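Example for tutorial group B:
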């Protein structure tokens, strides 16, 4: 008796992202058989009928087009209140003001902290759901959401509880992974030392006790926190069982990539200014490099993270939207992919691995972002034939349909996703 398939995807150009690091592992003429919520079998088309019972299964004919794991967006700040201030700042930025200058004069992250404080839980949840839904339309079946816009321990806890509500409300369509980001900006009216103590003594123990997050992140920059401050808080988080991550070397070479390696961080993200020593240390320690190229574009920066050098050094790559109101107000992962290829100089296949398995590794999720027999049936059927086509047709949404746990949870309107004819 063969296991009865509930769904079969046929004639796929399949990227399992389940081989070597940074390798999308592409094969043509493949089928994927799903039983319930899991992948039961993957192999050449002609073998499917001898592996599973095909009668009664829903069939999706990929017609030679790309099929990948569901995307894993491992770096977002999508829970925030919006009072219009950041849109006005964007215009100022376009006119020549820098992100750091805006931050030093009370804008930036602190402006969003004020707008977030003014927003009710219901408002925050509603806008976060809209943003998560847009990410789903880009193929994202697993996403990370950071706190970081709270002006007190209580406010950070409120945000993390709202992320938990978001996770409940999108469950079945997307998995939401919460990360505490207490070191984002020193809240207005607080001394640095006072805030650091509140984080270590009050906030983190409650995050761990209530299981509100699986990770803890810190932003190292002259306008944010020092290496020493980040080390102190992240070591406290690690002692509580949280995995740690860093916003590293975004605006200058701060040495944060080296700190990430020193403390065993799961990922160091941004890396626009990472130096050779940082890259070597990350490779040695197996820290994932989170590329966030839409931030460079939207901050009018000129330094993109050196994805090619990172990959050549053997560092696993992740690629994410960095969806946030300041440096990357965009859910467009197609644009992120094209920028990663053009400006970070990774190959389209590497970018695809980074958007799937690399993101899952940054979040320490053993099963997400790869397709393997026995694994979750989270997958995307694309209108494009190859990763090159995705990168080439920049910013277009090529998603045809998205499956979560073997169920179709998003279908694109024709013909938007299917302009690849023949
Ligand atoms: O990753 N750099 C720090 N955090 C975000 C920006 C957040 C904001 O400006 O509101 C980032 O780019």
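The residue assignment follows.
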């Amino acid at each position: 008796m063969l296991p009865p398939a509930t769904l079969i995807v046929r004639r796929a150009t399949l990227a399992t992202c389940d081989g070597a690091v940074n390798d999308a592992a592409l094969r043509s003429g493949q089928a994927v058989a799903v039983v319930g919520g899991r992948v039961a079998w993957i192999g050449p088309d002609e073998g499917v009928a001898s592996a599973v019972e095909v009668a009664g299964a829903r069939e999706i004919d990929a017609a030679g087009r790309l099929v990948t794991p569901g995307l894993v967006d491992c770096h977002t700040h999508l829970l925030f209140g919006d009072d219009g201030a950041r849109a006005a700042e964007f215009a100022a930025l376009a006119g020549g003001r820098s992100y750091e200058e805006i931050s030093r004069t009370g804008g930036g992250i602190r402006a969003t902290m004020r707008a977030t404080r003014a927003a009710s839980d219901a408002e925050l949840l509603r806008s976060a759901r809209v943003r998560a839904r847009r990410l789903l339309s880009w193929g994202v079946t697993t996403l990370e959401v950071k706190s970081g816009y709270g002006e007190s321990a209580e406010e950070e806890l409120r945000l993390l509880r709202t992320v938990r509500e978001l996770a409940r409300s999108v469950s079945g369509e997307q998995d939401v992974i919460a990360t505490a980001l207490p070191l984002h900006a020193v809240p207005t009216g607080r001394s640095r030392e006072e805030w650091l103590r509140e984080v270590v003594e009050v906030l983190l123990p409650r995050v761990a006790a209530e299981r509100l997050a699986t990770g803890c992140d810190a932003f190292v920059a002259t306008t944010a926190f020092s290496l020493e401050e980040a080390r102190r808080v992240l070591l406290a988080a690690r002692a509580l069982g949280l995995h740690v991550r860093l916003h590293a070397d975004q605006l200058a070479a701060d040495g944060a990539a080296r700190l990430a390696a020193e403390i065993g961080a799961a990922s160091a993200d941004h890396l626009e200014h990472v130096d050779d020593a940082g890259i070597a240390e990350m490779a040695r320690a197996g820290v994932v490099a989170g590329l966030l190229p839409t931030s460079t574009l939207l901050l009018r920066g000129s330094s993109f993270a050196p994805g090619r050098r990172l990959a050549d050094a053997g560092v696993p790559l992740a690629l994410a939207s960095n969806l946030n109101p300041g440096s990357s107000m965009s859910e467009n992962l197609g644009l992120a992919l094209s920028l990663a290829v053009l400006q970070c100089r990774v190959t389209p296949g590497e970018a695809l691995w980074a958007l799937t398995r690399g993101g899952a590794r940054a979040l320490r999720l053993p099963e997400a972002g790869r397709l393997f027999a026995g694994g979750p049936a989270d997958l995307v059927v694309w209108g494009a034939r190859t990763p090159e086509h995705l990168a080439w047709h920049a910013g277009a949404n090529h998603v045809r349909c998205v499956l979560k746990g073997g169920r179709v949870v998003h279908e694109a309107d024709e013909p938007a996703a299917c302009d690849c004819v023949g």
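The chain has two domains: 7-70+369-411, 77-362. Compare this with the pattern of hydrophobic and polar residues in the output above.
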